[in-house]
Amino acid sequence: MSGHQEPRLNISTYATCVTVFTVAATALVILTHLLTGPNPILYWKSDYAIFLIDMHHALQFDQEIGISSRFGWAHPGPFNYYMLAPWYSLFGEKEGGLILGTFLYNIGFIAASTWTVAKICERNTAALFLATLVIYSTLSLGSRVFLDVLLPYSTIFPWIFALCMSVAIIQKHSYFIPLLALTLSCVTQMHVAFWMPAVVLGVSTLAGSLLYKRPERKEILLWIAAGSVFIITWIPPLHEFHNLSKIFEFFTSRPRSDHSLLDAAHALAVLMGEPMQGTTLSYGEAKPGGLPLYLGLLAITASVFCTLAAWKNNNKPALILGYVVLIQLGTSLYALSKIAGPILHHSITFIPMISIFIALQALLLINQNRSSTRIKTTLTFMGSLASVFFIATHYQQINNAVALAKTTDENIARLYSDMEKATQRCTSTPTINMNQPLWRRCK
């Protein structure tokens, strides 16, 4: 008898492929919708209109700061404007190019995050991470998170990629080091709220890398290159030093914190717990508590226990990830206590994304146990089913979000037409008075 045996059907491998294919196919469908059909002027308003003005300056290479803040200064740098400039030009300086560019960058960051996770664990775990990332971000923020050009939505996936790179770098995947510096610079320029989490992540990654294993000459050179990249990317914002000084004054001039650490802890738990109950993150101030509070506390507790279990079982990837998660949770707690005025959920949407990495901690612990093949296969299979089910049940919502993003605001279009006709009839600089109902339409 021949000793040849047919290879057994590997359910885990096929389930992993199904997950990746489902996400990739959905992204391709959205991309097709964005590329096809008319490309009208959308007549953006409010902060989106300000974004368009800044994009005009970026095309003239004259934009040196980010979008304006309600606190009287602008976010530090123009990184995202210049990233989107090619797409904006390609689409005839219309809003559709900005939406397409934002979507492509976000898909790129999601793919890069998944690939990075695959470097530190098995592929089935990376596929589960991908499914968790797509499902959780959509539930938390709605389908618009993939298309929205404004912060904080536009910073979500770059920040997730930075967290993935941090864990990989500590485990000596040193080629990520300059890219981490570039990404941290990018998100901080786009949204100044990242300055503390980004600095802490960069420093903790450097410290963790040095403590994990003595660095080789190549790694030292890469850290030097990373420092150079960081400095170079901050040259344009330094030209607007007055803006940076206003930001610095804003963060240092207040004599005390607006929130106690207890209030900040409550807000952090609610912020993390809201998406876990299957609802979109609330707009405005944190709610009193209830189920989101307990779910958030449960997630934080789970991270602590996963980290302890990783330390006990000498699971290096899970332990490193646990340290990164706990350090970021501590940073978020302190940062929330320093927020001026009310803690507005819609301004800090990146914080609850740490829950994705708490789930990854648990998956890394399961992967360590070689006797749990059946459990891993079951989880991978369930992940693929969840991906297919989620896309099937949310496809219409996703499709509506794409259609809405490409729909012209008729009210603003009519207002623009009326104002254009009125100004053409004027022989001198006109004065335009907007009544209250009209002003509300423009906001």
UniProtKB/TrEMBL annotation:
<feature type="transmembrane region" description="Helical">
    <location>
        <begin position="343"/>
        <end position="366"/>
    </location>
</feature>
<protein>
    <submittedName>
        <fullName>Putative Membrane protein</fullName>
    </submittedName>
</protein>
<feature type="transmembrane region" description="Helical">
    <location>
        <begin position="291"/>
        <end position="311"/>
    </location>
</feature>
<feature type="transmembrane region" description="Helical">
    <location>
        <begin position="97"/>
        <end position="118"/>
    </location>
</feature>
<feature type="transmembrane region" description="Helical">
    <location>
        <begin position="318"/>
        <end position="337"/>
    </location>
</feature>
<keyword id="KW-1133">Transmembrane helix</keyword>
<feature type="transmembrane region" description="Helical">
    <location>
        <begin position="125"/>
        <end position="147"/>
    </location>
</feature>
<keyword id="KW-0472">Membrane</keyword>
<keyword id="KW-0812">Transmembrane</keyword>
<feature type="transmembrane region" description="Helical">
    <location>
        <begin position="12"/>
        <end position="35"/>
    </location>
</feature>
<feature type="transmembrane region" description="Helical">
    <location>
        <begin position="220"/>
        <end position="239"/>
    </location>
</feature>
